[in-house]
Amino acid sequence: MVLSLTYRRPAHVSQDSISSEKSGGQESQTSSSSCPYGIPDALSFDRIIGGGTCPPVTTREFMDFLVYIEHDAENLQFYLWYRDYVKRWSELPEREQKLAPEWTIEQAQQARNEILSEKVAAKKADNHEAAKVFKGTDFEMKANKTAGAPNPFSTPPRTPSHEAGRESIAPSTVGWSEGGSTLGSNMTHHEKKTANAFEEVGAYQPFTVQPYREEVSRIISIYIADGGVRRLNLSAQERTALLKALSITTHPSAFRDVVATAEASLRQQAHPNFIRWTICNGNPPRQTFARGLGIGGIVAGIVVGLLITLSGVNRGWRALAFLAFFIGIATLFAAWKGMCVVLHGMHHRHLRPWELFASDDSTSSSDYESGKGSFDSLGSANSYEDEPWVAKYDKRNVIRKIFDREVWIQEPALRSIQDTIFIQALITAFITGGILTGMHFAICSLTLSLR
């Protein structure tokens, strides 16, 4: 049976599966299957986030994949911050929790209705102004027809990338203080950005006495506000509704809809892509090298078959052609899946470039293991172009990259998936190799008989 990790979007995502923050539970979306993408339960999203897996399928590797490969780590960083935020909120004294009331589902729905009403009113006002401008001209009818057309350029912006000259917020210290503040000495930049965000949506300035207000303000400046260094890919309606909620309360329920959006993206897209990427045990140069060997094996099978047929030696020697076909097809099939059969034989994988040079330098290794940067929820932009390993890896020649250092794969479930792919490669090679061998010698024999 062929292993399938093809992404399939569920018909709907249930909101009823969100647990109450008051009880300290985490918001989580459930489905009929705990892992519905052809991925074993042992490698499910919940097990990875909960620390129930071994390298190279841990939260650390998941974050690395999103930072260095997908370039979309904001959702996971926000999601991990929120889980910790819910936990810390549940530990607050009741008198402090009462300062920030829960943002109920009814309030959220009312806020969404108000946003839609304001949007419709603004659209009608724009149409009215446009009609006044073109009144009495040849463009009046055309303006009336196109006034209600949707704007093709009104799609929400993508999460901004790290650009030269962009202001960023210096990474905060690791962990949170007792007051919930992780702010540095310079508070002007993020406070201004947060105030502008509230002003843009017409929200009131929030109460500063509420628990974790400074931290929430920092989150808004990083993940929600325009120009945030880790801005989430939210619709205008989601962003406005969240800011209106946060202007009233810092209760975790204010983030309900946004967290659901981020979690859905992680579960339905980022997680399946991460598992598919982790199955590859070799780096890109090694995979290209393996494909070359596979094609070379197939060509060698054709050449050997021709020589044996033309030489007129015993037919038993034709098994050499089948052997070349078998090795070539198996190698090519595994390489097509991103695997090197040699590395798989030892259950090894190549070290990733950021891991490779981190293990060379004790200081870099310490930073890597602690996750200082990508795991700092209130840190700077997810840019890695200036990290030392980038230039070092680019200077490596291709041969050295092909034979980079290896490490043992610790996760049993991942090794099991790779074993399945290896068996599929052998079966495919045996059947296809036999067919090619028979066809090849039949054609050669027919050609010689016609001569």
TrEMBL record:
Biased composition (Low complexity): 17-34
Location of region: Disordered: 1-35, 145-175
Transmembrane segments: 293-313, 319-343, 421-443
SUPFAM superfamilies, A to Z: MFS general substrate transporter, Regulator of G-protein signaling, RGS
Keyword tags: Membrane, Transmembrane, Transmembrane helix
Statement: the UniProt record of this protein carries the keyword Transmembrane helix: yes
Keyword Membrane: yes
Name of this protein: RGS domain-containing protein
Lineage, uppermost ranks: Eukaryota, Fungi, Dikarya, Ascomycota, Pezizomycotina
